[in-house]
Amino acid sequence: MSQAINPDPVTTPDAYRASLLSALGDDDPAHVQAATPALVATLIHDAGDLLRVRPEPGEWSVLECLGHLTDGELVVAARARWILAEDRPAIVGYDQALWVDRLAHNDDDPTALMELFGALRRSNLDLWSRRPVADRERFGVHSERGPESYELTFRLAAGHDRVHLAQARAALDAARQVRS
Description:
Layout: H1 13-24, H2 29-47, H3 62-85, E1 90-91, H4 96-102, H5 110-130, E2 139-142, E3 146-149, H6 150-179
Parallel strand pairs: 1-2
Antiparallel strand pairs: 2-3
């Protein structure tokens, strides 16, 4: 299954980065990230039996969007730790559509997925709150986007939440329309 990503993080990395930062706006990324687990739980509850319904061929279901958010949180957890612990580490990109498809997120247990996401998020927020502000300037070199600081990585994650929560809501709305 393919999921169109607009803008594409590989072919237009600057536009992709700008889109995530635009979704965050001037909001505090820690507050945005802290609110996401409750929003995920609400989406799972609201989706009910539509949780696994793909609105169109090649589009992600609500559960697949949430699986991607969890994958993203796992990746950000590793990236942040590499950036903080090593000097100019290589940060590997990944094909998010392949992960969602090959990891079969539409077959995931939503409760287990939500618990994993919550645990990773709490850990990442705790790390952010404990690090000296100067550490936010540390950076790694992303294989697709070039140098990215810890602060930028953290801000991108918050924008990423908003983009994919909106995608999940749109998937649910579309699934409801199909059912009507």
